[in-house]
């Protein structure tokens, strides 16, 4: 039982007052009389109903106490807690990130969350159901659905997306969809009360934080490189538990185990594993084998990158760019366009011109310079990107720039709406496009220019058949050749997952972390799906409820709104009985 207005329990003071009145009522003294002849009628009546006479005084007391007690209970608004869902309609916000795959009670957190959602849906009483998936981009999977069976089907079909959840955006979306009497249920593993209170300040919210702080070992980083004629690697493993843990670290490649080492890691510490020499392969898998509750962060993919690929300056290119690459230690080789050996499968191309048609099928940085140029009058802005890390653009001057080339490029530097630096993929190879001539800018005089060339050199040094690293389920348009318009996606077990037509649709990465292959005709392109760094730790918080009193009291009072009336009516009956008992006793 619950009470809408428990403040009225303070009226119990009146019960105490009544009891005190009985303690201090008038006391009678015994008197001896010579005859009771004049009391004969009274004695006859007393003998006719002796039980009532004996009980009159005590009965008055209990009737008064019961009447006051019932009136007090009626004012407090008692309600019986029922097995029902609070709210005129229900909004579910479900976290589908990688951390929800952690083990919990002989299953995983995500399965436990789905089961709780199904239990709530099963006892709905005509409320509408809305389901929001709190992924990287929150999605509305179901909007105000009154069909309970349909809602249960959607909940059952939910799957993990393995990306990092944008819980703040999902809560804002839920707030915009909620009505005055809506109840919001959030299913995650570590939603903080402060976040829920900030995003949903006046909403009824139940946060179901599922999970426990279990043992977890995480492969924080793993990489390989080719230097001094040999392939070496390094891995970092973190023990996120409170006890010493043992694990086996292995490196796999082309279905072979290339390296294995047992490690013992102290609680809360990291272990660095140096790998001296490996067989030269395009792709490596680092795996830790251990009994922890979270396996999604036990694997990483590394791509072999040559330590110092050569830079081929193709045709007439800016001397500033050539000297810039030489400044960072790269070997620059001058090559004529017509004399280029197409069988040369390694290196980075440095070129300048107004078309990509004669660009070799290698990673390239291309300075786009055309006859038609646009004057730049707006401020230069940049996006956060690896290529522009530590590059200062505030004092950079660019007088004019070429119109951008056609293609699906990612713009990382622009003046107003005019792209200045773009990156993407051309014929399956990474490409950086600079849409202005260095002679129209003072950029070569800034220290940020060689830094940009170094970042570009590192980015372009990746394996030529490697499509890149992707977030789980990430979609991106690829600028590909005609020979790569249709691809089949395979996992490491050579299972065909799905096919894509890149001429009509964007490239879509699988959701589960790991290494994959994109097969186009007879050519194989490698790519990897990596966890977001924020998903390499599993934490869990306490469940809680916000703004519960108003909505729960509202629903309870609507279900039990006549209870106070019956309590008051019974109290009135007791008052009437007490009055009749008093009247008869006074009359006698």
From TrEMBL:
The record places domain VWFA at 89-263
Full protein name: BatA and WFA domain-containing protein
Q: What's one Pfam family here?
A: VWA_2
Name the keywords, alphabetized: Membrane, Transmembrane, Transmembrane helix
Coiled coil ranges: none
Species name: Cytobacillus gottheilii
What Gene3D superfamilies is this protein classified in? Answer: von Willebrand factor, type A domain (3.40.50.410)
Taxon lineage: Bacteria, Bacillati, Bacillota, Bacilli, Bacillales
Superkingdom of the source species: Bacteria
Recorded hits in SUPFAM superfamilies, A to Z, give: vWA-like
Q: Where does the sequence pass through the membrane?
A: 6-24, 59-80, 563-582
Signal sequence bounds: none
């Amino acid at each position: 039982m619950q009470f809408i207005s428990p403040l009225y329990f303070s009226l119990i003071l009146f019960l105490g007052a009544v009891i005190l009145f009985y303690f201090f009522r008038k006391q009678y003294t015994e008197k001896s009389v010579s005859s009771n002849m004049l009391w004969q009628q009274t004695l006859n009546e007393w003998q006719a109903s002796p039980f009532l006479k004996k009980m009159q005084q005590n009965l008055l007391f209990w009737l008064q106490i019961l009447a006051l007690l019932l009136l007090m209970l009626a004012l407090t608004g008692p309600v019986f807690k029922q097995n029902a869902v609070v709210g005129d309609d229900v909004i579910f916000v479900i976290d589908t990130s990688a951390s929800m795959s952690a083990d919990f009670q002989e299953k995983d957190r995500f399965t436990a969350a789905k089961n709780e959602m199904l239990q709530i849906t099963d006892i709905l009483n005509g409320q509408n159901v809305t389901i929001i998936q709190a992924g990287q981009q929150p999605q509305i999977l179901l909007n105000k659905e009154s069909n309970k069976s349909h809602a249960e089907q959607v909940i059952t079909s939910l799957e993990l997306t393995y990306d990092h959840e944008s819980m703040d955006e999902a809560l804002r979306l839920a707030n915009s969809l909620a009505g005055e009497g809506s109840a919001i249920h959030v299913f995650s593993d570590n939603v903080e009360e402060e976040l829920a209170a900030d995003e949903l300040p006046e909403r009824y919210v139940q946060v179901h934080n599922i999970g426990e702080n279990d043992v977890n070992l995480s492969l924080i980083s793993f990489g390989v490189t080719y230097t001094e004629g040999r392939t070496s690697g390094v891995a970092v493993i973190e023990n996120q538990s409170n006890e010493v843990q043992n694990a086996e670290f292995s490196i796999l490649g082309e279905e072979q185990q290339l390296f294995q080492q047992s490690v013992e890691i102290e609680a809360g510490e990291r272990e660095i594993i140096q790998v001296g020499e490996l067989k030269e392969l395009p792709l490596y898998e680092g795996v830790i084998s251990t009994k922890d509750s979270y396996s999604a962060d036990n694997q990483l993919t590394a791509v072999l990158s040559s330590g110092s690929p050569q830079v081929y300056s193709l045709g007439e290119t800016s001397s500033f760019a050539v000297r810039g690459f030489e400044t960072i230690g790269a070997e620059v080789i001058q090559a004529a366009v017509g004399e280029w050996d197409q069988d040369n499968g390694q290196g980075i191309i440095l070129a300048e011109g107004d078309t990509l048609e004669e660009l070799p099928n290698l990673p390239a940085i291309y300075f786009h310079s055309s006859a038609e140029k646009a004057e730049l009058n707006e401020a230069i802005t940049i996006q956060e990107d690896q290529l522009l890390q530590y590059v200062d653009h505030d004092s950079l001057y660019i007088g004019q720039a070429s119109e951008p080339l056609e293609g699906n490029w990612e713009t990382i530097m622009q003046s107003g709406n005019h792209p200045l630096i773009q990156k993407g993929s051309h014929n399956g190879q990474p490409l950086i496009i600079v849409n202005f001539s260095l002679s129209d800018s003072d950029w070569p005089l800034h220290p940020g220019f060689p830094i940009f060339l170094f970042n570009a050199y590192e980015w372009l040094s990746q394996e030529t058949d490697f499509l890149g690293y992707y977030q789980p389920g990430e979609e991106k348009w690829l600028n590909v050749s005609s020979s790569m318009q249709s691809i089949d996606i395979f996992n490491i077990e050579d299972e065909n997952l799905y096919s894509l037509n890149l001429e009509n649709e964007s490239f879509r990465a699988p959701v589960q972390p790991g290494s994959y292959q994109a097969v186009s005709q007879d050519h194989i392109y490698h790519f990897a799906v990596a966890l977001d760094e924020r998903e390499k730790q599993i934490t869990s918080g306490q469940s809680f409820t916000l703004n519960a009193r108003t909505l729960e009291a509202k629903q309870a009072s609507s279900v039990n709104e006549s209870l106070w009336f019956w309590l008051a009516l019974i109290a009135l009956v007791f008052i009437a009985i007490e009055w009749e008992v008093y009247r008869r006793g006074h009359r006698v």
